Amino acid sequence: MKVGFSKDGRIIALDMFVIANNGPYDAVGDAPTSGRIVSLLYQPQAMRWRGVTVLTNTPREARRARQAACRASQIMEPIIAKAGRKLGSTR
């Protein structure tokens, strides 16, 4: 993930590439959902999302809900924290 910020801290550009492990079965929606969640939560002015899903022989665990929202924010938060330190907008 690459993120561009304005001087006031607004996210002006976001480039996101996701690789999702589908396990040995049918495709899951984590890859496209992560792009939607990042777009919704952080509302960049411009965004490019790319993703690929990979079938592997690794079984996936049972889930109650999509994990993409958690993973997307786990990727973004350190980037936002670093930008805040560089821009001087953290307390």
Polypeptide structure, described:
The protein has 91 residues and is an alpha+beta fold. The chain has helices spanning 30-42, 68-87; strands at residues 2-5, 11-23, 46-55. The chain has one domain. The chain is built from two helices and three strands; from the N terminus they run E-E-H-E-H. The protein has a three-stranded mixed sheet with strand order 1-2-3, with helices on one face. Helix 1 (30-42) runs parallel beside helix 2 (68-87).
Task: Provide tags for this entry.
elongated; 36% helix; 30% strand; alpha+beta
Which secondary structure elements does this structure contain, and how are they paired or packed?
Layout: E1 2-5, E2 11-23, H1 30-42, E3 46-55, H2 68-87
Parallel strand pairs: 2-3
Antiparallel strand pairs: 1-2
Quick recap of the structure?
This protein is α+β, with helices and mostly antiparallel strands and 91 residues long. It has one domain. The chain is built from 2 helices and 3 strands; from the N terminus they run ββαβα.
Measured between the Cα atoms of the first and last residue, the distance is 25 Å
Report the strand count: 3
Write out the strand line-up for the largest beta sheet, numbering strands in chain order: 1-2-3
Gyration radius, to the nearest Å? 15 Å
Number of domains: 1
- Percent strand equals 25-35%
Mean pLDDT: 83
Note the run of SSEs as H and E: EEHEH
Q: Helical percent range?
A: 25-40%
Query: Which spans have pLDDT < 50 for at least 5 consecutive residues?
Result: none
Characterize the overall form: elongated
Sheet of most strands: 3 strands, mixed
Structural class: alpha+beta
